[in-house]
Amino acid sequence: MTDISSDLLALITTLKMAAVTTVILLIIGTPLAWYLAKWQSRFKVFFEAVVALPLVLPPTVLGFYLLLAFSPSSLPGQIWQSATGSQLAFSFSAIVIGSVLYSLPFVVQPLQKAFEQLGDQHLEAAAMLGAGPIDRFFSIVLPLTKASFITATALGFAHTVGEFGVVLMIGGNIPGETRVLSIALFDHVESFNYANAHLLSAGLLIASLLLLSFVYLLGNNFTSKQHRPTKL
Amino acid sequence: MSTMTKSNIISSQQNHLSSTQATIDNSDDAALSELTLAFKLAFNHFEITSNQSIRISAITGIYGDSGSGKSTLLRVIAGLEHRAKGQLSLNGKSLQNSENKCFIKAENRQIGLVFQDSRLFPHLSVYGNLAYGAKRQTNHKLTIEKVLTLTQLTKLQHQNVTQLSGGEKQRVSIARALLAEPKLLLLDEPFSALDKTTKSQMLTILKAIQQQLQLPMLYVSHSLSELQYIADQLVVVSAGKISPSAPIHQAIHDLNSLGETSPKTSLSLIIAEHLPDYGLTRLSLPIAQGSNHSIYLPILEQSNDQRLIGQLLPCIIYARDISISTTKPEHSSIVNHLSANIIAIQHSKTNALVTLETGEQKFYAQISLWSAIRMELTTQARVFIQFKANAVHSYHNTEQTIHA
Questions:
Q1: Dihedrals φ, ψ of B399, to 5°?
Q2: Partner of B133 for a Cys bridge, out of B28, B176, B192, B317, CB 3.0 to 4.6 A?
Q3: Chain A neighbours among B 110-149 (CB < 8 Å)?
Q4: Alpha-carbon radius of gyration of chain B
């Protein structure tokens, strides 16, 4: 396989991993952020710390423990194997699970902050007009925190694309399965293939920059358009 | 206006809750809500208890100082306080019963709530906010167009709600609540942030809406004069305790004897005639009060409007503005003087609160202790009370804004 086509495969794997991870993150991150925003308990700080852990922890630490957990000899690995019939470690599913944990704070934190700022006022007003909880989420919460959802989606996606340590530990380097861009880049550097390394690095740099600019642009537009609830 | 006897209310609150519920179920009167309140709520060193039923026919006012628990009371009725313990029912239908863990959620109670801070949805237009309430109910007796007219919002319907003035916001808030077609509308100090002119306009609009839609309302305020203008019954909340509801004038007079800081006379007078040449409007005591005395107040604006003649005007006269004379004050600039009998004198450190009666109408006069002693006032004595035209206060807004 040529370098270019293997890099292309790595790009596709990366995008697939980031997309699947982001969707999962939005599905589990939204209720998690909601409960963290509404929950009033002294245990809350502990859960906030757990969510924030990937921000400070070396990714290899997370990857190491996940590797142990995913091995066929440990319980989570066994459950996975008996349920799906295939091994969890060194699979696409493994790097998705790893990425979900690794990028969790990037999705949960902006959403939690948005939900906290939103407060209960509009939700109570909506309830008094007959809107149930699910209805209130889609008719009030989502439109009023749209900017934060876009930020959370973009940050979660971009951070997953840039992941290295966790994938290295639990994914191995299987083309088309777990070989992502950051791993491919590492390979190129190790084999002194600087031309391809430049291509990937510059590509990732520019793509990330564009994505973040897009996020900030949207963020600015929303905050100027979307008025904060004003008091009388 | 239907006035119910106090004994009715009291008898229905005595433990035979189920039998009263049965009778209410039979009389399916949409214009009459009977609220049975029995709850105990405690959190953060704060406790609110009630064990009585409130019968709401038009607008029942809830009065209390800030922090007395009146807003919490509304939130409990609305279903926004999950920690409230006890029983609560509306029109015989249980909303909440801690004993069998029943709790009807706010969205299913068919109760509307207008918040002090209008809480309009900033991502929706005026029309969008109204449609939000309309979309989520099934009666469809009211159309958005009709409510826009009632609340005078037709011209503003496409506006962004963040660009509205305070009064406009509260009108949208009321309109939105009306379109959810609640069985009972709760209003939590809806106009407290508005200036006096806007406030009296709003009160006039709200009163007209109530009369048109026959929707029972509970109106919370810390302003007695506002409540006196809008409500026919009053419930007093004090330190977490809720008084039985009483007719508005009686309830205000009851507060006087409880040491209210500014005692006042509360009465409804019939608008008799306008005297533009003298800048006065003449009112008369209702015949039922057994006296045909006239009371003058500064002329109501646009008073050439004959529509007001014959209408009842709720008025307040502060006790500090009424003076007492033992002889008929014939050589005085003060326009209002009536003969009255003293029925009680209540002394305090610096002054005396004198309760007087003319016919069946009570008046309250606050005079200095010195005057009370010097004039040798005693109960049963026949005296004259006098007060300036300017001392007669009313929230009435004569700009007839509603023609819906």
A1: -70, 100
A2: B176
A3: 110-113, 115-123, 132-133, 136-137
A4: 23
Tokens 């009263």 locate to B20
- Total domain count, chain A: 1
Q: Which residue of A has its CA nearest to B136?
A: A130
Collect all residues of chain A within an 8 Å Cβ-Cβ radius of residue B162. 227, 230
**Longest Cα separation, chain B:** 71
CB spacing of A128 vs B106 below 8 angstroms: yes
Span between the terminal Cα atoms of chain B, in Å: 21
**Residue B385 CB partners (closer than 8 Å, separation 6+):** B322, B323, B324, B325, B337, B338, B340, B356, B358, B363, B365
Measured distance CA(B106)–CA(B178) in Å, rounded? 16
Q: Specify the DSSP class assigned to residue B7.
A: H
Strands B382-387 and B323-325: antiparallel
Q: Residue B356's closest CA among B317, B400, B399?
A: B317
Q: Establish if A101 belongs to a structural domain.
A: yes
Q: Is some CB atom of chain B closer than 8 A to the CB atom of A224?
A: no
Beta-bridged to residue B344, according to DSSP, are: B355
Q: Is A116 on the interface with B (CB under 8 A)?
A: no
CA–CA min distance A84, chain B (Å): 42
CATH number of the domain to which A153 belongs: 1.10.3720.10
Is A124 near chain B, with CB under 8 Å?
A: yes
CB B64 within 8 A of CB B236: yes
Partner-chain residue, chosen from A140, A228, A230, that has the shortest CB–CB distance to B121: A140
Q: What are phi and psi of A144, to 5 degrees?
A: -85, -15
Q: Which residues are within 8 A (CB) of B84 and not within 5 positions of it... i.e. 6 or more apart? A: B39, B40, B41, B76, B96
- Residue A29 located in a structural domain: yes
A194-225 helix and A181-190 helix, angle to the nearest 10 degrees? 150
Tell me which chain B residue has its CA closest to the CA of residue A135: B136
Residue A60 falls within a domain, yes or no?
no
| Residue range(s) defining the domain that contains residue A46 | 3-55+94-227
Please state the pTM of the whole predicted model. Answer: 0.81
Residue B218, both tokens:
């509970």
Could you list the mean pLDDT of each consecutive 10-residue stretch along chain B, which spans 404 residues? 38 36 39 73 72 86 86 90 84 84 90 94 94 85 89 90 91 94 93 87 90 92 90 88 88 85 90 87 75 81 68 91 91 90 90 90 93 90 93 70 38
Are the beta carbons of B255 and B243 closer than 8 angstroms? Answer: no
DSSP A158-187: HHHHT--HHHHHHHTT-TTTT--HHHHHHH
Residue A31 maps to a domain: yes
